[in-house]
């Protein structure tokens, strides 16, 4: 089964992929057993809310209430069952939440479908139809998995203009690298400061390869008519143009979610001492927010109903 000593000699946190769920549920601790569908639904709801709490790019908490209203407002359908007709319309783009308010393709289809299916599965169990609820639960988990942070970033990135994405790929890599250093140094206290420091870091490396080559390449492939908003005298300064682009790239609605997420670290709204981002996101479900600092939570269900929880904190010490 692959490398049995994968974590040896390094941090377990380093072995996790970006965007993986923080919480993982295990149902057959010390023995095989059947799992009640309501437990899976409850855990699915927890995972759904964990996803919206940890998404630093978009606040999708409104989707839970939207899904609830869709579940309650059942109507006639031309084909499929009611719930599959709803999924069909979301999948094909025939239905997009009004809150998105954007002409770009909607990247959170899976999250909305999952919210609808979790609530529909719960309704079926409450109505004495647990057998039919099973495939609804499976599809709820499936679509929730489609909207992990990494897959959402990929889906949203595809909505950006392909040509522009190709032109800026190496520049974006420079920006991400600079942001990582600035974050580690703790030298930026605001979004604007982070943007300025990114440009200055690139400036210090502009005469070194591969930075020099990447800047020249970018400068060559960008048409003269699109070389920035500045005056003619400074229009051809590649670093000025990059600084201008950062204003768009840092936005939650910008074309590159990975950059929006990286810049969000420097947003004043993320100051935990004032207004924690997580606490601003809530739904009528009342799923609690765990504010403790951990990167992995393992929840195991024991046969007698006991629940064993292990949390791995940022220093790799179980809690």
Helix- and strand-based class?
Answer: mainly alpha
**Separate helix tally:** 11
Strand content: 5-15%
What is the arithmetic mean of pLDDT?
80
* Ends apart, CA distance between termini: 28 Å
Region (Disordered): 266-287
What does this structure look like?
InterPro entries: AryldialkylPase_Zn-BS. Residues 266-287 are annotated as: Disordered. By secondary structure, the protein is mainly α. The protein is 48% helix and 6% strand. It contains eleven helices and three strands. It has helices spanning 37-54, 62-72, 82-91, 109-126, 130-146, 149-158, 162-185, 191-205, 211-221, 238-249, 257-264, and strands at 23-26, 294-301, 307-313. Strands 1-2-3 form a three-stranded mixed β-sheet. Strand 2 and strand 3 form a beta hairpin. Helix 2 crosses helix 4, helix 7 (162-185) crosses helix 8 (191-205) and helix 8 packs antiparallel against helix 10. The two termini are 28 Å apart. Mean pLDDT is 80; it is low at 157-163, 225-235 and 269-279.
Topology (elements, then pairings):
Elements: E1 23-26, H1 37-54, H2 62-72, H3 82-91, H4 109-126, H5 130-146, H6 149-158, H7 162-185, H8 191-205, H9 211-221, H10 238-249, H11 257-264, E2 294-301, E3 307-313
Parallel strand pairs: 1-2
Antiparallel strand pairs: 2-3
